[in-house]
Amino acid sequence: MEKTWNNKAWFMVLPVLLLVAFSAVIPLMTVVNYSVQDTFGNNQFFWAGTEWFEEILHSERFHAALGRNLVFSFIILAIEVPLGIVIALNMPRKGWGVPVCLVLMALPLLIPWNVVGTIWQVFGRVDIGLLGYTLAKLGINYNYVQNPMHAWFTVIIMDIWHWTSLVVLLCYAGLVSIPDAFYQAAKIDGASRWAVFRYIQLPKMNRVLLIAVLLRFMDSFMIYTEPFVVTGGGPGNSTTFLSIDLVKVAVGQFDLGPAAAMSIIYFLIILLLSWVFYTIMTNYDAER
Amino acid sequence: MARIDLNHIRHAYGPNPKSDKDYALKEVHHSWEDGGAYALLGPSGCGKTTLLNIISGLIHPSHGQLLFNGEDVTNLSTQERNIAQVFQFPVIYDTMTVYDNLAFPLRNRGVPEAEIDRKVRETLEMIDLASWAKKKARGLTADQKQKISLGRGLVRSDVNAILFDEPLTVIDPHMKWVLRSQLKQLHQRFGYTMVYVTHDQTEALTFAQKVVVMYDGEIVQIGTPEELFERPKHTFVGYFIGSPGMNVMPVKLAGGMAQIGSHQIQLPSPAMPVAAGKIELGIRPEYVRLGRLGIPVKIAKVEDIGRHKIVRTRLENQEIAVIVGEGQDIPAEPHVAFDPKGINIYADSWRVEGQ
């Protein structure tokens, strides 16, 4: 059959192009637009070039916030992923325990971010909160409003409480997809509990773990609402993450130019780190 | 290798079995020879996998004992029973090489590395995968993966039995033949006790020395392929084995004759023991002759399957299948005659012995 060669098929992608334009490209371009200009109000703009970018990249305040983000993401990944695997391994595979566990696990995920923040804000209060009050009664001088370490501890525990379930559910899905025959074969081969985990369960969870790590990394790197509600970024700047800092600049100080430049840098960092993660993990996967 | 004794074994999945219906496996009492190749054949849900899992130790039977070489292993774990099993879907350790897959069961048992190396190389030769030793197991084809599963059993020289749970289900048809003949060779060379579960009669009949036919939780017959074909003990064996299966028709017995509707058929031996219950006559299509003599029938359908024709005839309300040679023509006024040596009489579905 004779093949027809023309470019009419491009019209087919037009609707998608429009959708993407309105949902992503145009909003993003407005930010780019702000980032290269300066304004003194009255809707008057002056060309600023790369000035804002240079300022942000050299600002210590930005470096500090970025550092806090990286440390935070590292800590919660280091805790949530192993913890999630351990919980998933110990969840029942059949019987009435399955729906009970699944619902319990899904509950924290269903609570809106600001509500989670509020819960922990109250929970940790020394005067009326269960946690804060109990710790105080035990003689531990816990105060997340004044002590930066305590603030970090609270924010991290809160994130673990909120998001470990996601890792658990993903791992559990990976685990239940392993056919019984694998466990039976392992029994026949005389495999130890550890060998079963190392050679059957872990390889089968590989892909879902990759997704779990990526999702948890991106989410934790963009964390805003919960620490904002609990600590407001304090005490001092100790829990001011990039997102909180960004809102301070954009809404608090109304510095549109620096805020826009910061958004773009922030976005590029997440994109870059996610890409690096993904590449490393898929390469590792392919090698094995 | 071991002799396997199934000592009054019964199994129910529910907690409190009361009637026969609650048992997935009704009383099984047999002895399987050391070095024998047995095929468990039957339709889905007949209890063949249950029986296999009882032998492998994945299921503990509700009643009865299992003996390997006369030693009671009923309460031993799968690991302690020292058996090998090949599953329906290939089970391999994805992240390991072919070599490591085979070494895995030995390493778990703390065998010295030098001994492992010798055994693994030997087994790789046996299953024809020597050149793949260093490859990752995950990239292999389904039949190669099944060979690895088998190899993990063969590598342990002291296994009591090798069990196969429909191992060729996911294998391409042309590879099935190859694998089956390799299995047979291994069996002949090394004399493993093999138990092979399948619902495919061709597979069972070509693989096994003894075929164990199961139906509704019971073993209905254990026999050589020939015995199953010539003298099916149960009408189920008659129509499950053979293509098409045996013709089974209700008859009345009287003085060495069987009566079908208004027609009489001469039985092979006149001294037929009188049996009570529902009496049926069974005859394989291969033993029915289509010609101008015998009982008049109508022809319902002719299926030409290449090497022969299957003629579906009707005798009053009874369908009788007949196998007719390719070259033979079908008479205009067809009659069927039954070859006496192919006639079996059944009372309540069980064959009346001493015919």
From TrEMBL, chain A:
The chain crosses the membrane at residues 12-36, 70-89, 101-123, 151-175, 208-225, 259-280. One of its GO terms (cellular component) is plasma membrane. It is a multi-pass membrane protein. PROSITE patterns: ABC_TM1 (PS50928). It is found in: Cell membrane. GO terms for biological process: transmembrane transport. It holds the Pfam family BPD_transp_1. SUPFAM superfamilies: MetI-like. It comes from the Bacteria. Keywords: Membrane, Transmembrane, Transmembrane helix, Transport. Its main location: membrane. Residues 66-277 form the ABC transmembrane type-1 domain. PANTHER family: GLUCOSE IMPORT SYSTEM PERMEASE PROTEIN GLCT, TREHALOSE TRANSPORT SYSTEM PERMEASE PROTEIN SUGA. Belongs to the binding-protein-dependent transport system permease family. This is ABC transporter permease. It comes from Phyllobacterium sophorae.
Automatic annotation (TrEMBL), chain B:
GO terms for cellular component: ATP-binding cassette (ABC) transporter complex, substrate-binding subunit-containing. CDD domains: ABC_Carb_Solutes_like. It is a peripheral membrane protein. It is found in: Cell inner membrane. GO terms for molecular function: ABC-type ferric iron transporter activity; ATP binding; ATP hydrolysis activity. Residues 4-241 form the ABC transporter domain. InterPro entries: AAA+_ATPase, ABC_transporter-like_ATP-bd, ABC_transpr_FbpC, ABC_transpr_MalK/UgpC-like, Mo/tungstate-bd_C_term_dom, NA-bd_OB-fold, OB_MalK-like, P-loop_NTPase. Gene3D superfamilies: 2.40.50.100, Nucleic acid-binding proteins (2.40.50.140), P-loop containing nucleotide triphosphate hydrolases (3.40.50.300). The keyword Cell membrane applies. The keyword tRNA processing does not apply. Keywords: ATP-binding, Cell membrane, Membrane, Nucleotide-binding, Transport. Belongs to the ABC transporter superfamily. This is ABC transporter ATP-binding protein.
